[in-house]
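As a warm-up, study this chain.
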Amino acid sequence: LDSRIGKFETSGMPANPAPTPARPSVSKPAVKPAVSQGSNNSGNTLAADPANEEAAYGVAFEALKQKDYVESARLFKTFIDTYPQAQLAPNAWYWLGESYYVTQNYEIARQSFEGLLSQFPDSGKVPDGMLKLGYCQAQLGQKDRARNTFNEVLRLYPMSDAARFAQSQLRAMNLGQ
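Now compare it with the structure written out below.
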């Protein structure tokens, strides 16, 4: 995972991605979402605060880099729940899935990658998320689904790194039949 973190974090990102969040120090207090009173009687609504979003994402990503996968999964899930439409939400869905994948929680990882694909179909993280979905399916014994997913990666994103990995995985699957 170490060598893949930097690569996948930037692969497929839009031409003008959000600035990379500063790495918060471990001693920083937990980031709390900004809350504002709604003008109607529906109660409180979360106000989009990019600084809080980036800080919360940065804390979760730092836990991932430190190989604290349980904590990174918890933090990415909290980020998604708190900032469901944030610019970094697709990345959070991807890394949530990755946190589960590396701990061999393939079913939950599958659900996370599917969350990315369904909620952010135009994200730059989709090719890598679709590839990882195929990996999860293969690990879960869903070989036909995995083949279909890898073939979709090839069809939809033929020039991507994800397509190269999907092609390699298909070759390996075909050899092992």
